[in-house]
Protein backbone atom coordinates (compact mmCIF):
# COMPACT_ATOMS: atom_id res chain seq x y z
CA UNK A 1 0.00 0.00 0.00
CA UNK A 2 2.89 2.37 0.70
CA UNK A 3 4.14 1.92 -2.87
CA UNK A 4 0.70 2.68 -4.31
CA UNK A 5 0.29 5.76 -2.11
CA UNK A 6 3.76 7.15 -2.84
CA UNK A 7 3.58 6.60 -6.60
CA UNK A 8 0.04 7.95 -6.98
CA UNK A 9 0.02 10.89 -4.58
CA UNK A 10 3.51 12.44 -4.92
CA UNK A 11 2.58 14.73 -7.85
CA UNK A 12 -0.30 16.36 -5.93
CA UNK A 13 1.74 18.49 -3.49
CA UNK A 14 4.23 19.26 -6.25
CA UNK A 15 1.48 20.62 -8.52
CA UNK A 16 -0.26 22.54 -5.74
CA UNK A 17 3.05 24.13 -4.68
CA UNK A 18 3.64 24.86 -8.36
CA UNK A 19 0.29 26.64 -8.59
CA UNK A 20 1.28 28.84 -5.66
CA UNK A 21 4.99 29.38 -6.34
CA UNK A 22 5.70 28.17 -9.88
CA UNK A 23 9.29 27.38 -10.71
CA UNK A 24 10.86 24.05 -9.85
CA UNK A 25 7.69 22.70 -8.24
CA UNK A 26 5.77 22.94 -11.50
CA UNK A 27 8.57 21.33 -13.46
CA UNK A 28 8.82 18.53 -10.90
CA UNK A 29 5.09 17.78 -11.05
CA UNK A 30 4.98 17.91 -14.84
CA UNK A 31 8.10 15.78 -15.40
CA UNK A 32 6.94 13.22 -12.83
CA UNK A 33 3.82 12.59 -14.92
CA UNK A 34 5.27 13.08 -18.38
CA UNK A 35 8.63 11.33 -18.06
CA UNK A 36 9.52 9.69 -14.73
CA UNK A 37 7.05 6.80 -14.85
CA UNK A 38 8.14 5.73 -18.34
CA UNK A 39 11.84 6.01 -17.43
CA UNK A 40 11.56 3.97 -14.23
CA UNK A 41 9.52 1.29 -15.98
CA UNK A 42 12.21 0.92 -18.65
CA UNK A 43 15.32 1.37 -16.51
CA UNK A 44 14.23 -1.03 -13.75
CA UNK A 45 12.70 -4.14 -15.38
CA UNK A 46 10.87 -5.32 -12.29
CA UNK A 47 7.49 -7.02 -12.22
CA UNK A 48 5.57 -6.74 -8.95
CA UNK A 49 4.36 -10.09 -7.67
CA UNK A 50 0.77 -11.08 -7.07
CA UNK A 51 -0.72 -10.66 -3.63
CA UNK A 52 -1.56 -13.92 -1.85
CA UNK A 53 -5.10 -15.07 -2.53
CA UNK A 54 -7.48 -13.75 0.11
CA UNK A 55 -5.12 -11.13 1.51
CA UNK A 56 -6.92 -8.06 2.83
CA UNK A 57 -5.89 -4.45 2.27
CA UNK A 58 -7.53 -2.28 4.93
CA UNK A 59 -5.96 0.90 3.60
CA UNK A 60 -7.00 0.40 -0.03
CA UNK A 61 -10.28 2.28 0.13
CA UNK A 62 -8.75 5.08 2.21
CA UNK A 63 -6.19 5.69 -0.55
CA UNK A 64 -8.95 5.69 -3.18
CA UNK A 65 -10.86 8.28 -1.18
CA UNK A 66 -7.71 10.39 -0.76
CA UNK A 67 -7.03 10.33 -4.49
CA UNK A 68 -10.67 11.12 -5.28
CA UNK A 69 -10.81 14.13 -2.95
CA UNK A 70 -7.39 15.29 -4.18
CA UNK A 71 -8.59 15.09 -7.77
CA UNK A 72 -11.59 17.31 -7.06
CA UNK A 73 -9.33 19.79 -5.30
CA UNK A 74 -6.65 19.70 -7.98
CA UNK A 75 -8.97 20.45 -10.87
CA UNK A 76 -10.13 23.58 -9.01
CA UNK A 77 -6.59 24.65 -8.09
CA UNK A 78 -5.35 24.01 -11.63
CA UNK A 79 -8.22 26.05 -13.10
CA UNK A 80 -7.32 29.00 -10.88
CA UNK A 81 -3.61 28.63 -11.67
CA UNK A 82 -4.18 28.38 -15.44
CA UNK A 83 -6.90 31.02 -15.89
CA UNK A 84 -6.96 33.08 -12.69
CA UNK A 85 -4.72 35.72 -11.05
CA UNK A 86 -2.05 33.19 -10.05
CA UNK A 87 0.88 35.27 -11.29
CA UNK A 88 2.24 32.36 -13.34
CA UNK A 89 3.83 33.02 -16.72
CA UNK A 90 2.26 31.66 -19.91
CA UNK A 91 4.75 28.80 -19.98
CA UNK A 92 4.09 27.93 -16.34
CA UNK A 93 0.35 27.91 -16.98
CA UNK A 94 0.91 25.38 -19.77
CA UNK A 95 3.00 23.21 -17.46
CA UNK A 96 0.24 23.37 -14.86
CA UNK A 97 -2.45 22.49 -17.40
CA UNK A 98 -0.66 19.44 -18.75
CA UNK A 99 0.80 18.27 -15.44
CA UNK A 100 -2.58 18.40 -13.69
CA UNK A 101 -4.36 16.97 -16.72
CA UNK A 102 -1.99 14.00 -16.89
CA UNK A 103 -2.52 13.30 -13.19
CA UNK A 104 -6.31 13.55 -13.47
CA UNK A 105 -6.32 11.10 -16.38
CA UNK A 106 -3.65 8.66 -15.20
CA UNK A 107 -4.26 8.62 -11.44
CA UNK A 108 -7.58 10.34 -10.77
CA UNK A 109 -9.39 8.23 -13.36
CA UNK A 110 -8.04 4.84 -12.18
CA UNK A 111 -9.05 5.76 -8.62
CA UNK A 112 -12.53 6.87 -9.68
CA UNK A 113 -12.82 3.73 -11.79
CA UNK A 114 -12.20 1.68 -8.66
CA UNK A 115 -14.59 3.84 -6.62
CA UNK A 116 -17.55 3.21 -8.93
CA UNK A 117 -17.01 -0.53 -8.41
CA UNK A 118 -17.15 -0.22 -4.62
CA UNK A 119 -20.31 -1.24 -2.76
CA UNK A 120 -19.94 1.58 -0.22
CA UNK A 121 -22.38 4.35 -1.19
CA UNK A 122 -20.07 7.27 -0.17
CA UNK A 123 -17.16 5.80 -2.16
CA UNK A 124 -19.38 5.18 -5.19
CA UNK A 125 -20.69 8.76 -5.01
CA UNK A 126 -17.13 10.08 -4.85
CA UNK A 127 -16.32 8.22 -8.07
CA UNK A 128 -19.44 9.68 -9.69
CA UNK A 129 -18.42 13.15 -8.51
CA UNK A 130 -15.02 12.85 -10.19
CA UNK A 131 -16.49 11.88 -13.54
CA UNK A 132 -19.13 14.61 -13.29
CA UNK A 133 -16.36 17.12 -12.48
CA UNK A 134 -14.45 16.24 -15.65
CA UNK A 135 -17.76 16.47 -17.57
CA UNK A 136 -17.77 12.74 -18.28
CA UNK A 137 -20.37 11.49 -15.81
CA UNK A 138 -21.75 8.93 -18.24
CA UNK A 139 -18.65 6.81 -17.66
CA UNK A 140 -19.87 5.90 -14.17
CA UNK A 141 -22.91 4.22 -15.75
CA UNK A 142 -21.63 3.01 -19.11
CA UNK A 143 -18.49 1.39 -17.71
CA UNK A 144 -20.32 -0.73 -15.14
CA UNK A 145 -23.51 -1.53 -17.04
CA UNK A 146 -22.35 -1.69 -20.66
CA UNK A 147 -18.59 -2.10 -20.96
CA UNK A 148 -18.24 -4.95 -18.46
CA UNK A 149 -21.14 -6.84 -20.05
CA UNK A 150 -20.33 -6.34 -23.72
CA UNK A 151 -16.54 -5.86 -23.71
CA UNK A 152 -14.66 -7.09 -26.79
CA UNK A 153 -17.81 -7.13 -28.91
CA UNK A 154 -19.54 -4.75 -31.31
CA UNK A 155 -22.18 -4.09 -28.63
CA UNK A 156 -19.57 -2.24 -26.55
CA UNK A 157 -18.81 1.27 -27.86
CA UNK A 158 -15.58 1.34 -25.82
CA UNK A 159 -13.92 -1.70 -27.43
CA UNK A 160 -11.76 -0.63 -30.37
CA UNK A 161 -11.74 -2.62 -33.58
CA UNK A 162 -8.52 -3.64 -35.31
CA UNK A 163 -7.42 -0.94 -37.74
CA UNK A 164 -9.66 1.71 -36.16
CA UNK A 165 -7.72 4.87 -35.35
CA UNK A 166 -8.11 6.52 -31.97
CA UNK A 167 -9.50 9.62 -33.70
CA UNK A 168 -12.30 7.55 -35.24
CA UNK A 169 -12.82 5.58 -32.03
CA UNK A 170 -13.02 8.52 -29.58
CA UNK A 171 -16.20 10.24 -30.86
CA UNK A 172 -17.88 6.87 -31.43
CA UNK A 173 -17.03 5.75 -27.90
CA UNK A 174 -17.98 9.10 -26.29
CA UNK A 175 -21.42 9.32 -27.84
CA UNK A 176 -22.00 5.57 -27.84
CA UNK A 177 -21.23 5.28 -24.13
CA UNK A 178 -23.43 8.29 -23.33
CA UNK A 179 -26.39 6.75 -25.12
CA UNK A 180 -25.80 3.15 -24.05
CA UNK A 181 -25.27 4.13 -20.42
CA UNK A 182 -28.50 6.14 -20.38
CA UNK A 183 -30.43 3.22 -21.89
CA UNK A 184 -28.90 0.80 -19.38
CA UNK A 185 -29.87 3.04 -16.46
CA UNK A 186 -33.42 3.34 -17.82
CA UNK A 187 -33.66 -0.44 -18.12
CA UNK A 188 -32.31 -0.91 -14.60
CA UNK A 189 -34.86 1.49 -13.13
CA UNK A 190 -37.67 -0.20 -15.06
CA UNK A 191 -36.70 -3.66 -13.80
CA UNK A 192 -36.54 -2.34 -10.26
CA UNK A 193 -40.05 -0.90 -10.72
CA UNK A 194 -38.86 2.16 -8.88
CA UNK A 195 -38.35 5.65 -10.25
CA UNK A 196 -37.74 7.34 -6.93
CA UNK A 197 -34.77 9.64 -6.70
CA UNK A 198 -32.87 11.45 -9.43
CA UNK A 199 -31.92 9.66 -12.61
CA UNK A 200 -28.10 9.18 -12.59
CA UNK A 201 -27.79 11.25 -15.74
CA UNK A 202 -29.54 14.14 -14.01
CA UNK A 203 -26.84 13.88 -11.34
CA UNK A 204 -24.07 13.86 -13.96
CA UNK A 205 -25.44 16.85 -15.88
CA UNK A 206 -26.13 18.82 -12.71
CA UNK A 207 -22.68 17.98 -11.36
CA UNK A 208 -21.07 19.16 -14.58
CA UNK A 209 -23.02 22.42 -14.44
CA UNK A 210 -22.01 22.99 -10.82
CA UNK A 211 -18.36 22.34 -11.76
CA UNK A 212 -18.45 24.94 -14.53
CA UNK A 213 -20.20 27.41 -12.22
CA UNK A 214 -17.37 26.96 -9.72
CA UNK A 215 -14.88 27.51 -12.54
CA UNK A 216 -16.61 30.81 -13.34
CA UNK A 217 -16.37 31.87 -9.69
CA UNK A 218 -12.67 31.01 -9.64
CA UNK A 219 -11.63 32.75 -12.86
CA UNK A 220 -14.59 33.98 -14.91
CA UNK A 221 -15.12 32.78 -18.46
CA UNK A 222 -11.41 31.94 -18.89
CA UNK A 223 -11.86 29.66 -15.88
CA UNK A 224 -14.79 27.91 -17.55
CA UNK A 225 -12.63 27.31 -20.63
CA UNK A 226 -9.71 26.08 -18.49
CA UNK A 227 -11.91 23.68 -16.48
CA UNK A 228 -13.55 22.36 -19.65
CA UNK A 229 -10.10 21.96 -21.21
CA UNK A 230 -8.84 20.00 -18.20
CA UNK A 231 -11.96 17.86 -18.37
CA UNK A 232 -11.43 17.18 -22.07
CA UNK A 233 -7.76 16.37 -21.42
CA UNK A 234 -8.76 13.83 -18.76
CA UNK A 235 -11.56 12.42 -20.93
CA UNK A 236 -9.13 11.76 -23.78
CA UNK A 237 -6.96 9.74 -21.41
CA UNK A 238 -9.95 7.72 -20.22
CA UNK A 239 -10.90 6.99 -23.82
CA UNK A 240 -7.37 6.20 -24.99
CA UNK A 241 -6.88 3.75 -22.13
CA UNK A 242 -10.07 1.94 -23.18
CA UNK A 243 -8.85 2.04 -26.79
CA UNK A 244 -5.48 0.53 -25.95
CA UNK A 245 -6.61 -2.06 -23.42
CA UNK A 246 -9.07 -3.79 -25.76
CA UNK A 247 -7.73 -2.90 -29.22
CA UNK A 248 -8.34 -5.64 -31.78
CA UNK A 249 -9.52 -8.23 -29.24
CA UNK A 250 -12.88 -9.88 -29.91
CA UNK A 251 -14.98 -12.51 -28.17
CA UNK A 252 -15.81 -15.50 -30.34
CA UNK A 253 -19.36 -16.41 -31.25
CA UNK A 254 -20.36 -19.83 -29.89
CA UNK A 255 -22.39 -22.36 -31.95
CA UNK A 256 -25.56 -21.39 -30.07
CA UNK A 257 -25.09 -17.74 -31.10
CA UNK A 258 -23.96 -16.45 -27.71
CA UNK A 259 -20.65 -14.70 -27.17
CA UNK A 260 -17.96 -16.60 -25.33
CA UNK A 261 -17.60 -15.60 -21.66
CA UNK A 262 -15.28 -12.70 -20.89
CA UNK A 263 -11.82 -14.03 -20.10
CA UNK A 264 -8.16 -13.01 -19.80
CA UNK A 265 -7.78 -13.09 -23.59
CA UNK A 266 -10.04 -10.04 -24.03
CA UNK A 267 -7.82 -7.35 -22.44
CA UNK A 268 -4.26 -6.17 -23.00
CA UNK A 269 -2.14 -6.09 -19.84
CA UNK A 270 1.24 -4.64 -18.95
CA UNK A 271 3.81 -5.94 -16.48
CA UNK A 272 5.61 -2.65 -15.78
CA UNK A 273 5.95 -1.96 -12.08
CA UNK A 274 6.03 1.80 -11.53
CA UNK A 275 3.21 2.81 -13.86
CA UNK A 276 1.13 -0.03 -12.38
CA UNK A 277 1.69 1.36 -8.88
CA UNK A 278 0.97 4.92 -10.00
CA UNK A 279 -2.19 3.85 -11.85
CA UNK A 280 -3.40 1.61 -9.00
CA UNK A 281 -2.91 -1.62 -10.97
CA UNK A 282 -5.13 -0.47 -13.84
CA UNK A 283 -2.72 -2.16 -16.31
CA UNK A 284 -3.73 -5.55 -14.83
CA UNK A 285 -6.90 -5.22 -16.81
CA UNK A 286 -7.84 -8.83 -17.49
CA UNK A 287 -8.16 -9.65 -13.81
CA UNK A 288 -10.28 -6.56 -13.24
CA UNK A 289 -12.76 -7.76 -15.87
CA UNK A 290 -12.78 -11.20 -14.32
CA UNK A 291 -13.23 -9.82 -10.76
CA UNK A 292 -14.60 -6.23 -10.92
CA UNK A 293 -14.98 -5.98 -7.14
CA UNK A 294 -11.49 -7.30 -6.34
CA UNK A 295 -9.42 -4.62 -4.53
CA UNK A 296 -6.84 -3.10 -6.84
CA UNK A 297 -3.80 -4.21 -4.73
CA UNK A 298 -4.99 -7.82 -5.14
CA UNK A 299 -5.33 -7.75 -8.94
CA UNK A 300 -3.24 -10.48 -10.53
CA UNK A 301 -1.17 -10.44 -13.70
CA UNK A 302 -2.15 -13.38 -15.94
CA UNK A 303 0.65 -15.42 -17.53
CA UNK A 304 1.68 -14.16 -20.96
CA UNK A 305 0.36 -17.32 -22.62
CA UNK A 306 -3.12 -16.75 -21.16
CA UNK A 307 -3.62 -13.03 -21.77
CA UNK A 308 -2.04 -10.61 -24.28
CA UNK A 309 0.63 -8.24 -23.00
CA UNK A 310 1.67 -4.89 -24.36
CA UNK A 311 5.43 -4.49 -24.80
CA UNK A 312 5.34 -0.93 -23.42
CA UNK A 313 4.09 0.67 -20.19
CA UNK A 314 0.46 1.70 -20.48
CA UNK A 315 1.18 5.49 -20.61
CA UNK A 316 3.66 4.88 -23.45
CA UNK A 317 1.18 2.68 -25.34
CA UNK A 318 -1.47 5.39 -24.94
CA UNK A 319 0.93 7.97 -26.36
CA UNK A 320 1.60 5.75 -29.39
CA UNK A 321 -2.15 5.43 -29.95
CA UNK A 322 -2.30 9.14 -30.80
CA UNK A 323 -0.10 8.34 -33.83
CA UNK A 324 -2.33 5.91 -35.77
CA UNK A 325 0.15 4.71 -38.41
CA UNK A 326 2.90 4.16 -35.86
CA UNK A 327 0.44 2.46 -33.50
CA UNK A 328 -0.78 0.00 -36.13
CA UNK A 329 2.75 -0.71 -37.35
CA UNK A 330 4.13 -1.34 -33.87
CA UNK A 331 1.20 -3.21 -32.32
CA UNK A 332 0.15 -5.19 -35.40
CA UNK A 333 2.84 -7.89 -35.05
CA UNK A 334 2.02 -8.37 -31.36
CA UNK A 335 -1.69 -8.73 -32.13
CA UNK A 336 -1.03 -11.27 -34.89
CA UNK A 337 1.39 -13.21 -32.68
CA UNK A 338 -1.19 -13.35 -29.90
CA UNK A 339 -3.88 -14.65 -32.24
CA UNK A 340 -1.56 -17.33 -33.56
CA UNK A 341 -0.47 -18.50 -30.10
CA UNK A 342 -3.60 -17.87 -28.04
CA UNK A 343 -4.87 -20.88 -26.09
CA UNK A 344 -7.85 -22.65 -27.65
CA UNK A 345 -11.30 -21.49 -26.67
CA UNK A 346 -12.83 -23.48 -23.85
CA UNK A 347 -16.57 -23.56 -24.33
CA UNK A 348 -18.86 -23.48 -21.27
Automatic annotation (TrEMBL):
Chief localisation class: membrane
Superkingdom in the source lineage: Bacteria
Record field: transmembrane: 60-82, 201-221
GO biological process per UniProt: lipid metabolic process
Domain annotation Fatty acid desaturase: ranges: 96-300
UniProt KW keywords: Cell inner membrane, Cell membrane, Iron, Membrane, Metal-binding, Monooxygenase, Oxidoreductase, Transmembrane, Transmembrane helix
InterPro entries: AlkB/XylM, FA_desaturase_dom
First-level EC class: oxidoreductase
UniProt GO molecular function: metal ion binding; monooxygenase activity
Subcellular location: Cell inner membrane
Family: Belongs to the fatty acid desaturase type 1 family. AlkB subfamily.
Protein name: Alkane 1-monooxygenase 2
Organism in which the protein naturally occurs: Pseudogemmobacter humi
Amino acid sequence: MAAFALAAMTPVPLLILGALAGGVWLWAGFLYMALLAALLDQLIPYVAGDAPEGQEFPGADALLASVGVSALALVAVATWAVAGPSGLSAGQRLLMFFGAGFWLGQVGHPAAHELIHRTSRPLFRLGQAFYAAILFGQHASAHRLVHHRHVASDEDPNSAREGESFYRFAPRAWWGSFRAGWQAEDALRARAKSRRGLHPYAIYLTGGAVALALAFVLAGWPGVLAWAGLGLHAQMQVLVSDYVQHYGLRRARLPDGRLEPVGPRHSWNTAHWFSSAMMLNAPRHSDHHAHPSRPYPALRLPPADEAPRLPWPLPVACTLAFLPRLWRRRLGPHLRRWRENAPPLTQP
